[in-house]
Fold these 2 entries.
Entry 1:
Amino acid sequence: MSSSTATHSVALMYHAIGGAGAADAAQDPHYTVDATRFAAQLDALVRVAGGATCARDWLAAPRRAAVLTFDDGHASNHALAWPALCERGLRADFFVNPGKVGEAGLASWAALREMAASGMSIQSHGWNHRYFTELDDRALREDLRRSRLAIEDRVGAAVTLLAPPGGRMRADLPAVARECGYAHVLGSEPGLLDGADAARALPRMSVTAALDVATLEAWFEGRGIARARLRYGVLGLAKRTLGDRRYERLRERLLGAGDRAR
Ligand SMILES: [Zn+2]
């Protein structure tokens, strides 16, 4: 184990990785991290945190660490992220939608099985990316059970973690998820990973295309977290005030066409 300068644990939330062979319409440019940048970020995690692990393994033995997660199951997770992780002996959780696996731009079941066989953790991002806040109680429970069982069936490994699509969740989601066979929920609210409390969603720091290594390293010293939380709070208020659809339109206009919320 390399030496570590990190004073805090942080879970990172990635989406697609960009680069040769990864260009496709399913990728949101705001959340697509260039492969060269991604490699530099992994090297930084090795330097400051002594490596990186997946939430599945971290929750089994919480300690100071970097936790890597990917949402949406993009094809680039298999084509670009997975080889870069293996090269460095790192692990990550991949939160996928079983109702969408195999669609253009997304990783296939065969790809996910290959990743799982190498030690990666394949977990649930809901059935087909419908926001949980749009589902009634019965539909939510069905979505949680159905997605977990489908991934377990096709990948052949236990699914214990849930990341709600778009980070949209009701306050009792961790309790409902536990009833549906999950041990933990990973949210999209920024924060430090300061424990493995199953009663609340674990915070994750969102990695966007523009993130630089200095900012990433600062998170592991607890710097820049409050700013990210403030920004998330303001955006959340805009979502609640405008409603999801009007918020997405506003965001598109501010950030550029083709930039969709994940
Ligand atoms: Zn998503």
Entry 2:
Amino acid sequence: MVSPAARPYIDASVPVLREHGVTITTTFYRTMFAAHPELCNLFNMGNQASGVQQQSLAAAVFAYAANIDNAAALAPVIERIVHKHVSIGIKPSHYPIVGHYLLGAIAQTLGDAATPALLAAWDEAYTELADLFIAAEQAMYGRAGITPGQLRAMRVIQVERQSADVNSYTLQAMDALPAFTFKPGQYISVTVDFGNGRSQIRQYSLSDAPNAGSLRISVKREAAGDETPQGEVSNWLHQHVTAGSSLQVSPPMGEFTPDTESADPIVLLSAGVGITPMIAALNRIAQVQPERRTIFAHAAMDEQHHSHLADLRAAAAVMPNLHILNFYQSASANALQDKNNQAGLMDVAKLPAWSRTETKVHLCGPTGFMKAQWRALLDAGVPVSCLYREVFGPDLLDSLAA
Ligand SMILES: Cc1cc2nc3c(=O)[nH]c(=O)nc-3n(C[C@H](O)[C@H](O)[C@H](O)COP(=O)(O)OP(=O)(O)OC[C@H]3O[C@@H](n4cnc5c(N)ncnc54)[C@H](O)[C@@H]3O)c2cc1C
Ligand code: HEM
């Protein structure tokens, strides 16, 4: 609870800080990375360069500090961040560093308006938020049985081409420790060491059901655009990793975990490489609840870009109540021979009917897809309490930041 003395300063300054959000976060990262270059290895420098990250950490501090007394609103977003932080290896000792440069950026941007009383109020709010994260993260490190930042070397035992730009990698532990356990929907962080002290960490959803000893991830090679460079880690993985390579990974983390164990109907909607957590869920359902009514709809550019077709075929063979629908932006005449395939973008109205108010609907895909489907599902009468999403980047957490 922020003290009564600090509260008015926080409330009054949140709108101002949001207005100057980009300037504050840009100053924050620039000054922090200049003083602590080692932190560049923890942050996704692709997101930094493209500006995505600018909207994330610092903006979240403002949004959450403003809601610090509203535990119910904070809990779900904090859970997502705690999983992410733990998979990256954030340590308690990192918090004062972030706090120092964040307050410095506020002071620098607001100038004379940053009075000692206002800065003291933000120091108090940040410290409270940091303590909350530190405690939750320490508990999660304990449950995972690791120290912050501890990685595990895994051997790549198989590389498979899943579609035109997606490879899957099956990994097996190289030590005698117990195998990782996980829930479908969770991800691991992969750390790639580029040499000269430079490394980068990326998250990859596990793309198969839990099974004794091995983990599978499926990675889309992010090609260069007209004005954007190619993705650093995904291209490195596609170029350098073969059967026999080893990768440094975190334990599985993530709070997006579709309930695969119950017999209730379930809807799994994805686009592009967003299919990965859905395949993990589907493969698990095929093992434990093959009779379950499951709607699995996927949007891809075309058949060549549709990953995990073999998994879909295998699930269809054992799941009599599985409904598969594929939406291809450019569908060949051949593809349209199959009654499961449709031309165009995913259209909720074309999916088989389900109980709008009871069935859980899960979404994963690029931002445009997520926004369009989220809106379409709400318009179709699905309550927000039945909607679950995984975002392959910083989630903008609009419910709190609005
Ligand atoms: C929970 C979670 C699960 C995920 N699961 C999967 C998965 O299963 N499969 C999968 O393939 N991915 C997954 N991702 C995404 C993955 O973590 C990476 O973000 C992805 O592989 C791209 O990383 P990269 O290093 O190749 O690209 P980056 O180098 O990080 O680049 C990302 C984007 O930023 C752009 N960019 C980079 N530098 C600049 C610049 N200077 N100016 C402008 N733009 C720039 C690039 O062009 C690219 O479009 C997941 C992410 C999360 C958070
Ligand atoms: C109270 C303080 C903090 C808040 C509110 C916060 C908030 C966030 C948020 C919202 C995200 C994005 C999560 C997502 O949706 O994926 C994130 C990710 C991240 N945070 Fe924090 N964070 C805090 C402290 C820290 C600290 C101390 C560090 C360590 C230096 C840190 C490092 C990171 C990193 C590396 C990521 C992943 C983003 C990327 O890949 O670039 N955070 N944090």
